[in-house]
Fold each of these.
Amino acid sequence: MRNSVALAKRVLQQFRHDPRTVVLLIIAPILVLWLLSAILNSPNYRPTIAEVGLPAPMVQALETEADVVQLSSASDANLVDGKQDAVVTLDGTALKITVEGSNPGHSQACVIAVQRAMSSLVAGQPTAQLDVTYLHGSSDWGVFDFFGPVFIGVFVFFFVFITSGMSLVTERSGGTMERLLVTPIKSWQLVAGYCIGFGVAAIVQSLLVLWASTALLHFPNEGSPGLVILTTFSMALVSMTLGLLVSALAKTAFQVIQLLIVFVVPQILLSGVFDLTNAPAWMRVLSVCFPITHGANALRDIMLRGVGFSGVALNIGILWAFIVAFFGLATMSFSRRQTR
């Protein structure tokens, strides 16, 4: 028992000499739980529906279930940019509903809102049959299809970060990194070498993940496979350069995991894995500051809506801006290590 107590004291002394680990052990789970509570406590989604030429009783009933926008023509509806989720018109005794369709949850909310509105009409008012069409996707799409592109980007980002961060920590603990730093190699050449090596692996990973997602898991893909590969590869490069930067802060593999919780997990939670439509405004603003969000948005636009390069160029450009920034910061960190 005395030996066990002595060993326990030794472990506690290690924590005392490593305050960063203690802080991460306390802050990381609190941060994740706080983000989850803010996301999951958001109110239920209330759709925005455009109506064209509906009778006043129908409009009043629909306003109790959704935010209603009155338009003079169905062509005025803006489903592509997400300003409305659906447009409803009356054709004789049939209500025609055109939903955006890429998000099955929002599409279902629109149909349910119209159904509830029609069922709440007072006796004597005309009833109508529902005719639902989809701008993107179909009624066969499920919730998993909508989140599939996000999962592709998240898993690529997550595993590339782990691989790059762990590899550098392993080389540092084995003395390989120190031997490289004393050679004539420049810091940017060192970082570029790691990027090229891990980049080749990232291309192979992106190809395999995309093939498995579409061929085995049957994720829908309405866009260009090459554009999907470009986006996932860009996300992998962001993760790799971030992993190289973070690995300069970590001394052990355990600290890499802790920094993963701080730098990556919040990005995943705010990337689109959860619907942030009704989340607090500050959370939606914060999500835009993270590279995973832009990669996930690009993958959704390509795979679910068939958007071309011009439609996702901004998101991909932001990803490459992060790559340049993280590459520069990682180069500076290795330069400091070389001058010590």
Note: The mean pLDDT is 78.
Amino acid sequence: MSALTSWLASPPPDAAVELATDAVSAATLSSRGAETAVEAFAQESLPPGALTPTLMGSNVHDRTSVVAALKTVVARLGSKPRRVALVVPDTATRVSLVRFEQVPAKSDDLDQLIRWHLKKSAPFPVEDACVTYAPAAANADGGREFLVALARCDTIREYESICEDAGLQAGLVDLSTFSVINGFLAGGRIPSGDWLLVHMKADYTSIAIMRGSDVIFFRTRPEGEDAFAGLVHQTTMYYQDRLSGQGFGRVLVGGTGRRSTDVEAARLDLETRLGTAVERIDPTRLAPLPDRLGSASEGAGRVIPLLGMLLRTQQEVGVA
């Protein structure tokens, strides 16, 4: 199983770090015989406005506070990591699914074709963009979809340089919700058929429809009064009308939200709207957590993308 997306491959990281709007968090893994477990986890809140993810313009507005928070978090892990996998907000990028009836045999030709396609919709020159993609669902006629993520190179460098100022090397960069999905894929816990995943953060909600291990729909919506209801409604309508949806075999919701009650409220709302059972994402099904982290706690919500990133990198080097 290949990873969903990354901007830069590197040796296995010592830890995973997430830079989010409201907090910085980090985690490390350890081996307990044949079992992989979360060895350490730490988080530190950020002052409002210190980091505001956006596709355009600067994302970091209080560099001193963000770097200080990252240093504090790393110190709480115990042994200081050097190489880290970096998780960035979904809203710092634009994600799309691109379909081609014929896929070029050469990777360079495919890269050029995807960049040419993005030129029509990118809000800045594609030449200034970090573009990454991974194969998604294959079409019956031999074509294929690709899951494509686009970000300004300056934006990715902005996040990487935060790590550098804290004495860390960010060798792998990925999106928060992609990392959650990768946790399921790397852990071998892929629901059969179609399944829905909702990932809530303080400032946005992302929703993905999966068909087995393939992403067939992905949307991110900034938080607002009707953001969640609108996102769910649009997604379910699109699923039924355009994706020949026959119903979700499993629905999962996780993350943090703006308030501690948001995820549970979203779970109950989804059950009402979809008429099916909705589960909270339980990171303990992927790996044991430290005793102080309950499976429904805020920390557990924050550890899920970190755990997904670490499990993915272990699998890529044949560790997990």
Note: The helical segments are 63-76, 107-118, 153-165, 176-186, 227-242, 262-274, 298-316.
Amino acid sequence: MKTKKVVFTLLSMVVLLGLLICCAPKAEPTPQTKEPTIKLLWACYRTPGDPRAAVYEHFCSRIEEETKGRVKITISYAEQIIKAPQEYDAVVSGTVDMAAPVVAYVAGRLQIPAMLCEAGYWQEPGDSLVIMSRLREPLSRMFEKDGAKFLGWGAEVAPQSLACNTRLIKLPSDCKGLKIRAGGIGVLAINAWGGTGVALPNSEIYMALQTGVIDGTLLGPDTMGELRIWEVAEYFTYIPGGGIPTPVLINLKKWESLPDDVKQVFEEVSREMAPWSYERSRAVLADIVADLETKFKESYTIPEKDRDHFSEATKGFYWKSTVDRLGAPAQEFWNAILSAADECAAARARGETPRFFED
């Protein structure tokens, strides 16, 4: 009898203990600290979906994907906050976090990097993107002096085209006597072709053509389409050649503030973007030109036999004066451009994609 009481007592205690455990309030799990979202602002003077804007949009999506939403880059389009010629200064000053400025627009400030633009007049589409990535180290040092970090890749202003409201341009001599708008050092190219180069922002081109202030404009075909130049000019000439690079930059202080793992993602995605941007730039160009040819009253593509008339006239129109002013550093950079350009041509001759980056 005594044993039964002991067993009963023990069982009761076990049951009571179990009830206490089950009914006890459960401790809340320790909340994990969520890393704050890193928000960056990109100034882009292009419109949404434009060929160059699409390249930047792809990069932003890849960054958000690889950081699992930790980094969100917002693009401000169509010069809403920064005009195209001011994009470089905006990145340097930190007014915006990122941009891909047209180097030709700020050639006065970036004299050595602007030599990339001259080479575009006689290269092939996409070459400027290869060369820019191959020259990442010297370009990085130049941009960092101003306060910008170069990510080693960019997009490309498409090969140049001419729209004119007085005549169809087939040879450089057809530019003689014409006032032709161009951006940055493009003014020098027009002068080299015998015309009078006029510097005007994109926003003023349409009205200037409409009112006869200028006779024509030198533009990338993508910009020609965006501005609907066929409405104020009848003649379109496409000059096959290379494009002008738009290096992707981030404010240096902003870059230095990023966590190391985020920087690593930026570096990895940037390396994949260089060949991606190259292939895309080449793929969409033919479609853009073909579409423009249907919109103008008369269109003309410079044939291979006449292309040298345009390219030869522009060889030396900028780099020589830059070397005269800045000496050995400029000459060294120009030699590196020529070496990389030769490698691009050799790779294409073998049916290969040119090599990106030096490391």
Note: Residues 260-293 form the longest helix (34 residues).
Amino acid sequence: MANPAVQRFITKLVMAMPDPVLRAMSGGSAVEVGGRRLDPQFQMMAHAAKAGPKMTSFPPAVARAAAAMGFKSAQGVIEPGVAVEDFDIPAPHGGLKARSYRPANQDPDAPVFVYLHMGGGVIGDLDTGHGFCAILAKRARCAVVSIDYRLAPEHPFPTGLDDSLFAYRWTRDNAARFGAPAGKAAIGGDSMGGNFSAIICNDLKKAGEAQPVLQLLVYPATDITSETPSMTLHAEAFPLTTETMTWFMLHYVPEGTAHTHLRLSPMKEESLAGLAPAIVVTAGFDPLSDQGEAYADRLKTAGVPTLYRCYDSLAHGFLGFPGLVKKADAACREIAGLVRDAFDGKLASADVQRAA
């Protein structure tokens, strides 16, 4: 077996090659679906992945370990000037692992941002979004707290969601510990983390609690019963296929639980009025792209200030690849800038927007 450090070096060397070379090495021509062209670096990763076994062929624990290794190597150089600290949140079941990011230029008026990672409720950890969290802290000039919620199948629905809700409330109530205004917090995440973030905003509304300052939903799963065109068009997309989504849900959702449950599919909520201002981001090559866009449209229709962006050439999971995919890194930085704009009050009158 090759040394992991050597494998990472070779991967980064290959990914740094010019776009025409990457295209030639990964099929010879550009990948175009639905009028969109896939980024050459993502195309190269997708081509390489075809040579290996599918995630769905592994037990969850093995898939989790393999994914952790891959995402850890894809973070790149962490932003300078950001202090990182691992700590435990005192939760009812024991310590809930978390990681804080404090930029040297932190704005004392900016809310603390609670980040929830991707992974279908089955994979992912504090390293999954490590690079993005540092970028977010630096560019949005806010403290970020990333949560290592418990995973299925060892801890099925709604355990990870409840962990995340508890962690949000704890972080909000202890915001001063992170140099942020007391009682103020934003929330966000990607994929399942986006699903959790959307649901938590609805949960807080039902509990009569104040909404987060902002919700950031990046390629979120908002309706796990979805049969929209993107579910078919991108059924075999890398790294998220519809087969992988089914595998996640088989492990995450207990038998007998309806997929229409509002704490699984927030799109099924009767009303989204009164929720936190939102930034909703989707990827062009993603089975979830339609439901993310539809949720943004519903938020806007409900009167929620909402900004929508689609990164047409990128694929699901791009927040996890800032160290390997140039356009993913640029998107991470742009999204962090949008969060900063929202903190500065520039989202209040924004319409839903679409950008390449």
Note: The chain is about 35% helix and 15% strand.
